[in-house]
Each structure stands twice: as C-alpha cells, then as structure tokens.
Amino acid sequence: MTKKIEEICFVINARLGSSRLPGKMLKPFAGTSLFELAIDKIISSKFPQEQLYLSLFDKPLKDIASEKGINIYHRSAQSVRADNTPQSAFTLPEVFEWWEHLQDKYEYYFFVNACCPLLKVSTINSFVDEFLSSDSDGLFSVIEHRRFFYRKDSSIINDYTGTEEAKITFNTKFVEPLYSAAPLRAGRLSDIGKHIYMGTFTQNNDPPLWVVPHEEAADIDYLEEFVRAEKMYVEADDDIWG
C-alpha cells in the first residue's frame, strides 16, 4: 500500500527544560542552534513545509517558530514536566499529545529528534521515500553496532555464528549486530493513543528497522557531546546540507 505524502505530518518536539544540559535547544551552536537547525533541515528537505509542526511550550521557541512561519502545536505544562523518577515518567500519548490534535488532518507522522545536528538532509529525504513506499505502519531509524555487548554478569548478549576460538579472540566478523535508536521515526497517529510507537516490538519487522550512519545519529545530552558535535558539524557543514 503506497502512502501519499499529503497524509503525513512532520513533528519536532522541543523544550528548554533539559535536566542534563539546560537550554540546549537554543544554546549557540555553530552560528545557529539545535532547534533552528532541525527546522531548517526539514524545510530544506522534500517534505512540504506546510505539513511541519513544532510542538512547543516555551515562548522563546514559539517566537522562533513564528518568525519562520511554521505551524505551532502549543504543548501543555504537563508534557514538559520533569521526568526524573519512575513515577513522573511520560506516557506516549502525553509526550506526543499532538497526536489527537492532528489525527483529523493526517493519517501518519514523521518525528525527528532535534538533538542530532549531524543528520543529513539527504538522509531525511531517503527516510521519507522509504516510508512512503512501505506497506508498514511504522519505520524506525537505527544505528547498527557490530561489536560484542555484555550483561552485568559478563555474559555475552549477541548471538555468534563463528567458532568458539574466534569468539574468545573478539573476532566481530561473525557477531550478530545489535541496534540502537536513531533520530527519525514514523508511525500511524491513531496508534499513539493506543500506546503503540511505530510498532509492537514483539513481532518480526514490526516496526521495520532502517539503518542510519553512526556519525549522523550523534545525540546530544551532555556538554561534552555538544562541544564535540559542534566541531564535527563545522567540519562537515557542506556535506550535511547536500
């Protein structure tokens, strides 16, 4: 079943209340900010600007969105609360409360993590194409890791297809890759209300995984990551926007 791009909204969630790096969305970054970079990349992509929504609570973020002429979904205070304890953790419909507001206009959503400034515009375009041509209701961008991973008891998590001798010499050619989350996600809006994010994660290929290069998925949570990502961005600026 081929999807139509008119059936899809693109959403960026942003807030200034990060507990690990306060104000990181507007902290100066290579002459701009993480927030503005994320917006400008979607605008530069093949995705229609009029279908881009910024889910915001803080006035400084809303002011930038207004200046750029981007749709704003006005987040509630509940959706930007501190979530540092298990009791205060967000549910899916809370953190993505825009699902109910937008489901009358759109069938599906794209979502991007604005804390990943090295994500390329060409990668966004490829992700859009992949989801449009997919029969699935979801698509999950991931980073592939071809190395050994261990539990606290020192047992190996990965499956291994090589010999035991190759395994004890840390030969990763035969290790089963593992995957972690990358910046782009897609799904059906109505599924969010059912607490389903892209898929069930209990059946094969639900959701399908879509691999993103490691360097594009650098996610900023701490100051040292911010500094390192800014240096990498400056060095790769033309390539990121190509």
Oligomeric form of this entry? single chain
Cross-sheet strand order for the largest sheet: 3-2-1-4-6-5-7
Beta-strand proportion? 15-25%
Identify the overall geometry: globular
Estimated structural class = alpha/beta
- How far is it from the N-terminal to the C-terminal residue, by CA? 30 Å
Rounded to the nearest angstrom, the radius of gyration is: 19 Å
What is the H-and-E element order?
EHEHEHHEHEHEHEHH
Helix content: 25-40%
Largest sheet: 7 strands, mixed
What's the total count of β strands?
7
Overall mean pLDDT stands at 94
pLDDT below 50 for ≥5 consecutive residues: which ranges?
none
Number of helices: 9
General description of the model:
There is one protein chain. It contains nine helices and seven strands; from the N terminus they run βαβαβααβαβαβαβαα. A seven-stranded mixed β-sheet has the order 3-2-1-4-6-5-7. Strand 2, helix 2 and strand 3 form a beta-alpha-beta unit. The relative contact order is 0.18. The mean pLDDT is 94.
Quick summary:
The chain has about 240 residues and is α/β, with parallel strands linked by helices. Helices cover about 30% and strands about 15% of the residues. It is built from 9 helices and 7 strands; from the N terminus they run E-H-E-H-E-H-H-E-H-E-H-E-H-E-H-H.
